[in-house]
Amino acid sequence: MKKTIYIIRHGETDLNKLGIVQGRGMDSELNEKGREQAEAFYRAYKHIPFDKVYTSTLRRTHQTVEKFIENNIPWTQYPGLDELGWGIHEGQESTEQIRSDFHKITQDWKSGELHHKFERGESPLDVKERQLIVLEKLIEENNDKNILICMHGRAMRLFLCLLTNQPLTEMDTFPHSNTTLYKVEYDGKEFHILDFNNTNHLDYPFDQF
Questions:
Q1: In the chain, where are the structural domains located?
Q2: Closest Cα partner for 3 from 190, 204, 205?
Q3: CATH 3.40.50.1240: does it fit domain 3-208?
Q4: Where does substrate bind (predicted)?
């Protein structure tokens, strides 16, 4: 049975705005702009008859799709959708040293060193293991035709690699910004991207809906 999966990144938080590292260990809330982004996404996609809503366990994803949840669409929180844990760098403001550390580790990942991680953090391989649980739910035989998933930037990149059977070293081929949409179709065997990094819902004033 075909399924269509709408995968979005959460709306903006103050930590996003300030450039502060925000991973699995930072349970921040949406700021005013983030709430506006969430509202814009809702108005653009409220006509879709979603059968399920999946989010991470973190509040910024819950708040982004809150209006869909309030419509009594069945909602499940999955730890597998949480952001990658950045360990000792979480909650820290960007400095030259932190930027250098991040550049080095992302280059390591691109070169295949996918087990590398910051102290007390997670590697892409760690995240993949917990995302496999969500993948199993997506491919279950059931009547779900439309599923909405709200998650996080780096985790989204890894999840899209997993769905499209690309190596995790290619994660950076999936750009993202707050409330970016990737629309994916599952044909019963494989996943195919139908809509790539779409933020059109942010381009229209509310009175256009």
A1: 3-208
A2: 190
A3: yes
A4: 9-16, 60
